[in-house]
């Protein structure tokens, strides 16, 4: 019964799609009705995994592409040019620019609070779909165990009906039990690798956002000080810096 699973993979590696789909259809049929929810879980898990991998690639690419412009944005905030920084951030399409854009719109009502809320919103966007993968990893083996139970029940029913006159009916139930268990474990194992990778990527993104938030907070505090400083103090600071350079 279980030789169908390795045969299925060997036919896929050999490039025999007709035989592969025929074997897969036969495997689902012999696995019983529990195979359909396991198949649904596998489709959901693979779809979410590829979609989240693309989302993280897009996120990292945007941060890398707009890194220099983000540094220029920090310099504008540090100089106290908040309106210019807001206009610049609206032109950029990166997580950091979206965070600072929302924060700059709430300078007087709570810059740091908005900065934290906006960064959490970006992390929630990246975290979307993680619960689906976690559910598939948990539910798929349990569905396999359920198929094991239903297969054994079918085996005992066949034994009672045939009174050992037809052993083939009994082996069909055992085959259903083993196929569903193996399939459920395979689905969970396949999904756990992208889930762990995505979790590590999420932690890296959270650390990166914390560093970006710290830079924005320091730049904002410096910008507020520069705005509140009188013009004579600014001129004196400029003269001091020039004299120190000449020395």
The total tally of domains equals 2
- Low-pLDDT residue intervals, each spanning 5 or more residues: 11-15, 230-239, 241-247
| Share of residues in strands | under 5%
Main beta-sheet annotation: none
**Gross geometry:** rod-shaped
Helix/strand structural class: mainly alpha
Query: Can you write the helix and strand succession as a string?
Result: HHHHHHHHHH
What gap, in angstroms, lies between the N and C termini? 88 Å
| Helix percentage range | over 70%
* Number of strand segments: 0
* Overall average pLDDT: 79
Number of helices: 10
Radius of gyration (Å): 30 Å
Give an account of the 3D structure.
This protein has 247 residues and is mostly helical. The protein has two domains: 1-31; 33-139 and 182-227, no CATH class. Helices cover 89% and strands 0% of the residues. The protein is built from ten helices and no strands. It has helices spanning 4-13, 17-31, 35-65, 67-78, 82-91, 95-104, 107-127, 130-162, 167-228, 231-246. The longest helix is centred in the C-terminal third of the chain and has 62 residues, at 167-228. The radius of gyration is 30 Å and the shape is rod-shaped. The N and C termini lie far apart (88 Å).
């Amino acid at each position: 019964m279980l030789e169908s699973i390795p045969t299925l993979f060997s036919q896929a590696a050999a490039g025999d799609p007709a035989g592969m789909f025929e074997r897969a259809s036969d495997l689902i049929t012999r696995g019983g009705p529990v195979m359909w929810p396991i198949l649904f879980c596998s489709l959901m898990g693979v779809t979410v995994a590829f979609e989240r991998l693309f989302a993280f690639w897009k996120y990292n690419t945007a941060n890398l592409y707009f890194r220099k412009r983000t540094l220029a944005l920090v310099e504008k905030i540090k100089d106290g040019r908040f309106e210019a920084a807001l206009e610049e951030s609206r032109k950029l399409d990166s997580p950091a620019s979206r965070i600072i854009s929302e924060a700059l719109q709430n300078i007087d009502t709570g810059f740091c609070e908005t900065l934290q809320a906006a960064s959490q919103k970006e992390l929630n966007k990246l975290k979307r779909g993680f619960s689906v993968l976690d559910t598939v990893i948990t539910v798929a083996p349990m569905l396999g165990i359920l198929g094991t139970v239903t297969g054994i029940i079918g085996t005992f029913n066949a034994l009672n009906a045939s009174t050992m006159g037809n052993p083939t009916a009994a082996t069909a139930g055992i085959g259903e039990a083993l196929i569903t268990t193996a399939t459920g474990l395979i689905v969970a194992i396949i999904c756990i690798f992208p889930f762990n990778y995505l979790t590590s990527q999420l932690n890296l993104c959270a650390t990166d956002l914390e560093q970006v938030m710290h830079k924005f907070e320091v730049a904002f505090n410096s910008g507020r000080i520069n705005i509140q400083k009188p013009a004579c103090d600014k001129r004196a600071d400029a003269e001091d810096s020039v004299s120190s350079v000449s020395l």
